[in-house]
Amino acid sequence: MELKNKNCICETCEFRHIVFSYLDDDGIQELCDNKIEQAFRKGEIINREGEPVTSFKYLKSGLVKLFRTTPSGEEQVITFTRPFEFVSNMSVFSGEKYRYSVSALEDSVVCIVKLSYIKDLFMKNGSFAMGLLTRMAEINEKIIGQALDLRQKNLVGRIAYVLLYFGKEIYNSRIFDLPVSRKEIADFIGMSTANVIRTMSEFKKDGIIKIDGKTIEVADINKLEILSRRG
Amino acid sequence: MELKNKNCICETCEFRHIVFSYLDDDGIQELCDNKIEQAFRKGEIINREGEPVTSFKYLKSGLVKLFRTTPSGEEQVITFTRPFEFVSNMSVFSGEKYRYSVSALEDSVVCIVKLSYIKDLFMKNGSFAMGLLTRMAEINEKIIGQALDLRQKNLVGRIAYVLLYFGKEIYNSRIFDLPVSRKEIADFIGMSTANVIRTMSEFKKDGIIKIDGKTIEVADINKLEILSRRG
DNA sequence: CGCGGCTTTGATGTTCATCAAGTAAAGTGG
DNA sequence: CCACTTTACTTGATGAACATCAAAGCCGCG
N or C, which end of chain B is more exposed by having fewer CB within 10 Å? Predict the structure, then answer.
């Protein structure tokens, strides 16, 4: 976990157009002064459920998972997010403690902004506030929609859905390396690890996907989509 | 579906302290001028999934359910909400169309505010914006948390959870009339109607609850809570 | 009064979790 | 770099949990 307070490069950050599109150059400069970047290696925890929220964070690069731990000690994976989706989630404003944990699935860089600064900005700059609200709304809709999508499907449908999700939403490629273990997929779709593996093996036997360890190749996307829909 | 553009009584509306606590008297007066009240009878649709969002709505009195319809035509119930939780949900800012349908489970009154007015207010009044964001965040956390809670439980645990939810969160009473059919409970917890009924009958047999049609009395809340936790 | 929808219960079958045992892979310390 | 340990993965067999089907009773409503 390495801390680098780089020279300010926010002016050219591609993020600017997504999150802070309503800030002028002075505003961006000020943001920069209140921001640090932090790098996390694969597997490291970025936020821990229950700990106080002290800053506003967003993912600059990498891939993370949101999850929570049930009273009985099992992990529930809530969703996976790429850059341009916030890491802090709504916990920032809705409470003083993180509702979910966040960990890095790939090496990731997180921008960390003083919470008081973001709140101040939010109060003063209506456009910024509107942009932030809209973005947060989208993220929540995604999480809720995913949960509902999965809920209505059976095992086969859920596996197909997840594979399509990684292929289309996360990697935008027919071939990709799964960033998660089979168990994490199980924790995401709410099924047992053994059955996740079994179902993936069957997809392989049926020529729908090819598997080599973590590497997945979608061989028959049509069939996968049918399975996802009908599941 | 009856429309009444009452004389303005927003100054004394208990809502004021929840949603619009950061508006002064002039602000409230203005809000009133941009608002109408609409009454819905039990069973009526307030918002329909897929239709354009034209106004900002919140529940003044009554009880509603949020739901969506799956491609195969089944209903998925997302959550139930009482007054002080918004009806519009995040759809208002995150997209032009409603993501979910909303219908009245009891006779309900909805306040309808011009969307452009709310957006304008949001832009100009930072405190209002902050209050709104916080509230919306809470609602989303509730929905997501409920979905995750239910996901980790088995049939028995889910039924126990739902009964406790109605008793504690919705009615705050040991005896209450279920505002939903058995099928709607099934659509909420993601189990079959037959098994919802069966499980409730077993709770009755075991003396955990008493059932008389829609009327439920929680006889042994301890046992119910244990079942909910262990389920 | 009769129809349709909601409720109830039993019987049956499918789906999925669990257990177990073995293999591969990945980290760990010498 | 190798032996060791641990963790992830895989597959089969078994049983539990749950859906589905069916038939009957109930209730509200036109």
Answer: N
Which residue has tokens 């919470």? A115
Cα dist from B192 to A144, A209, B110, B198, whole Å: 21, 32, 32, 10
**Rounded to an integer, what distance in angstroms lies between the CA atom of residue B142 and that of residue B117?**
27
Instruction: Dig out the tokens for A222 from the structure.
Output: 């049509």
Residue A212: partners with Cβ closer than 8 Å, 6 or more residues away = none
Residue ranges and CATH numbers for the domains of chain B are 10-149 (2.60.120.10), 153-230 (1.10.10.10)
Is the whole-model pTM more than 0.85? Answer: yes
Round to a whole number and report the distance in Å from the CA of A210 to the C1' of C12.
37
Q: In the predicted model, what is the mean pLDDT of chain B?
A: 88
3-class SS of residue A126: helix
**At which residue do the structure tokens 């939010």 appear?**
A122
Give me the phi and psi of B218, to 5 degrees please.
Answer: -80, 110
Residues near A17 by beta carbon (within 8 Å), at least 6 away in sequence: none
Distance from CA of B114 to the nearest CA of A (A): 17
Distances (CA, A) of B56 to B21, B34, B38, B96, B141: 17, 11, 13, 12, 20
**Per-residue model confidence as pLDDT tens digits over A99-147:** 999 999 999 999 998 888 888 989 999 988 988 888 888 899 999 999 9
**Residue A208 contacts residue A201 (beta carbons within 8 Å):** no
**What pLDDT is stored for residue A204 in this prediction?**
96
Contact yes or no for A94/B134 (Cβ under 8 A): yes
- In this complex, the answer to whether residue A173 has its CB under 7 A from any atom of chain C, a nucleic strand, is no
**Could you report the per-residue pLDDT of A43-67, keeping only the tens digit for each?**
999 999 999 998 889 898 999 999 9
Q: Which residue has the higher pLDDT, A223 or A134?
A: A223
Specify the pLDDT at position B73. Answer: 85
**Can you spell out the DSSP letters for A12-65?**
G-GGGGTTSTT--HHHHHHHHHTEEEEEE-TT-EEE-TTSBP-EEEEEEES-EE
C1' of C5 to CA of B192 (Å) = 17
Please tell me the distance from the alpha carbon of residue B196 to that of residue B189, in angstroms, as a whole number.
9
Q: How far apart are CA B142 and CA B80, in angstroms?
A: 10
Report whether A48 contacts A24 (CB < 8 A).
no
- Asked whether strand D has any atom less than 7 Å from the CB of B192, the reply is yes
Q: Which residue among B93, B130, B147 sits closest to A123, beta carbon to beta carbon?
A: B130
